[in-house]
From TrEMBL:
This is DeoR family transcriptional regulator. PROSITE patterns: HTH_DEOR_1, HTH_DEOR_2. InterPro entries: Carb_Metab_HTH_regulators, DeoR-like_C, DeoR_HTH, NagB/RpiA_transferase-like, Tscrpt_reg_HTH_DeoR_CS, WH-like_DNA-bd_sf, WH_DNA-bd_sf. GO terms for molecular function: DNA binding; DNA-binding transcription factor activity. SMART domains: DeoRC (SM01134), HTH_DEOR (SM00420). Keywords: DNA-binding, Repressor, Transcription, Transcription regulation. SUPFAM superfamilies: NagB/RpiA/CoA transferase-like, Winged helix' DNA-binding domain. Transmembrane segments: none annotated. Residues 3-58 form the HTH deoR-type domain.
Amino acid sequence: MQKRDRQDVIVEEVRINRNVSSNFLARKLKVSEDTIRRDLNELDKKGLILKVHGGAVSTIQKLYHYNEDMIFNRDAKNAISKKASNLMKDGMVIIISGGTTNLMLAKQFPKDLNATVYTYSLPIAMQLSEHPSIEVIFIGGKINKKSMVTVGIDVVQLLSGIAADICFIGVSSINITNGITDEGYEVSLVKKAMIAASDKTIALADSNKLNVRQNYGVCTLGEIDTLITELDPKDHKLRNYRSKDLEIL
């Protein structure tokens, strides 16, 4: 492998994993750790990664760190995000809500995708800022410190002026009767606005969110185009959802 190609792989590994060790990179690329250290020094000088003792981290680590080991039901959310990433196409205008499932989706964006992404989630905006060809537009407003998303009338008004191709909405709870519901009133209003601004709505829900109801309505099942879970679409847990006019992945 040529030096340039090797360094491209290193940058991509750091972008996806946030931090990597020299030992891991040496084994992956089948070169010595001395070679990797020289590569890391060069990439650090170019500002593409941040070299640290024993390896490298994303430059975004200087500003923000999200402990992914603490994400609940991580394997399920990873499976969901991989399914969702297949729905993206070049040239799309995308809105993506907050939540850890969508944070993992942000990591799965195809590296050659050219698109514009609006989000009111600070962690997701920072994750996508590392993507080489995504235009990221962060929707500012009052920050909900618990979930690190912006809420309020400013966010709703900005969303109302967007004409998006698709939105990916993180689901706190969903059931047949009430559709998607949320635990927070302000977040529910923002999610309503993003659905109204999009031609197609994709709901991302791991299976423990199914058949649950929370206090504030977001949308009915009829307003959702596609429901993505980690389950096989034919799983018995999705039987009632299959009876609706709803694509299930």
